[in-house]
Amino acid sequence: MENQSNSKQNQQEHTFTEGLSFEGFRQIMKKFANDRDWNQYHTPRNLLLAFTGEVGELCELFQWKGEVSEGLPEFSEEEKIRVGEEMADCLAYLTRLADQCKIDLTQAILRKMEMNAKKYPVEKCKGKSDKYTSYQEMKEQPQGENQQNQQEQLNIQQQQPEQKIE
Amino acid sequence: MENQSNSKQNQQEHTFTEGLSFEGFRQIMKKFANDRDWNQYHTPRNLLLAFTGEVGELCELFQWKGEVSEGLPEFSEEEKIRVGEEMADCLAYLTRLADQCKIDLTQAILRKMEMNAKKYPVEKCKGKSDKYTSYQEMKEQPQGENQQNQQEQLNIQQQQPEQKIE
Amino acid sequence: MENQSNSKQNQQEHTFTEGLSFEGFRQIMKKFANDRDWNQYHTPRNLLLAFTGEVGELCELFQWKGEVSEGLPEFSEEEKIRVGEEMADCLAYLTRLADQCKIDLTQAILRKMEMNAKKYPVEKCKGKSDKYTSYQEMKEQPQGENQQNQQEQLNIQQQQPEQKIE
Amino acid sequence: MENQSNSKQNQQEHTFTEGLSFEGFRQIMKKFANDRDWNQYHTPRNLLLAFTGEVGELCELFQWKGEVSEGLPEFSEEEKIRVGEEMADCLAYLTRLADQCKIDLTQAILRKMEMNAKKYPVEKCKGKSDKYTSYQEMKEQPQGENQQNQQEQLNIQQQQPEQKIE
């Protein structure tokens, strides 16, 4: 009994802290820029280059490591914190970029995952790396999806009362 | 009077649809990979290279455009959809990467924004690009922040029922 | 007369200093790594990530600049030196990567330019940006080219007898 | 005896074909753009984004491979050709970028390697990965180096009389 619950704890899935949405983070970033009067520098291509700069910094943390394992046991605690910081920087600029481009990032994510779900049906792709390696080809044609259906398939539950997605 | 309210409408802030959190997206991506038995391919460096690949594709959409404006009026509707899709791909791989590295992306974002808020106090930075251009230097030393305090300062409230931030 | 020669001088084409070949640089980099016993760290994916890291640093130098002009008049002398350094770092890792992958970079360049010359015939492409914007689609199918022919067309002469640099 | 010479042959160093210099490639790329009247699109940031796009495509070729070995034995012949093509694309845009920025790429490379040689003296760095991992920190301060001296140390000889390609 105890063992069972222990082993359950051990294999407990890693999660992100709840409570921050893409829209919530957009608001934080927007306010941060507004407060400092920085929107004037936040043109789309300036932000895109800032984003690629952060991506480069994230890559640098992995550059001499050889293959690394799930959970980064090969990294020191300080290095793991750095990884999180660089990820945060990537997200900050990508979020600002989407905001300044007036792209609805939430909708873009949901639509794209729906496209992926159709392109990679579970029954055909399960455990097949050959199929999977063509994952990279999967983003050609934009489609106008039925988003209701999409949310059902992807099991997105609306946090209520907050509902509306469209 | 009417004009005023019109102009208010026109300058209405662009928002992302609410209802999707970083943790929610992590779950979607995790389930997507689990269902297809793809975790075996999702090693940290595989995901990192997949992420950089998507970043490259996002860059390609902006490469021959010259400077572009807020809202991307220079892009066709189809191009804007492509931009959203590539952003979604970037986010998908970054989210998977954080998950497989067992990084708490939400906490990483909140900590980093707190560090930024300290480094760029409003009164000193407002409208100063010279200060701002040193933004890129701002991610050297990892710090163990008081996260409670951080969330208070940034006004991040845990979920329910989606209290407005601005 | 004088004016003419002056104006000719002014419009003199920018050149790189001659005397360093791709193979020569490969040798320099190889020796540098050998002398320090660093080949053990120079696995393909380590080098690829180091390369992307340097690309990010190059991007950072352009990130808050808005559109910049030919010759970078908007940059300080120090900034221009930094740009050259980051470009050098990019080239150093790309060269090491090609070497460790046993790719013949010179042949790869010549083949690719030949493919481009066929894909973008002068008469069809001249001054057409619409054609040009599809430049990014031009690298799909590998081809086995006649390299002799290719070098004739591109006027690459082999330097005999291949002066050693080390 | 025979074995010895055989084993020497087997361990023959991989080389790039000689005969193409950085300046020679600059000329090829310049002529290619001139012939098509494409300089108008080749602004620094357009080229920088095109470069990052190609870097992303190079990364994609390595993304699901796990760690790969020297010489890429895990890649098919076709995949290796693709790798060479993407490297060529990276080099093409980086070369155009340096040209349009009026950076002397050859000098930048030589200066940077000289800086690296000073920063990483053989006797201190040999086989030490801990030293090596700080390689990424080595590009902070621009310096005005004695280039004569530098070229002597690196044994770069100037090829006179600089055979013209165009």
From TrEMBL, chains A, B, C, D:
It catalyses: dCTP + H2O = dCMP + diphosphate + H(+). Residues 126-166 are annotated as: Disordered. Its cofactor is Mg(2+). GO terms for molecular function: dCTP diphosphatase activity; magnesium ion binding. Residues 126-142 have a biased composition (Basic and acidic residues). Hydrolyzes deoxynucleoside triphosphates (dNTPs) to the corresponding nucleoside monophosphates. Has a strong preference for dCTP and its analogs including 5-iodo-dCTP and 5-methyl-dCTP for which it may even have a higher efficiency. May protect DNA or RNA against the incorporation of these genotoxic nucleotide analogs through their catabolism. This is dCTP pyrophosphatase 1. It comes from Tetrahymena thermophila (strain SB210).
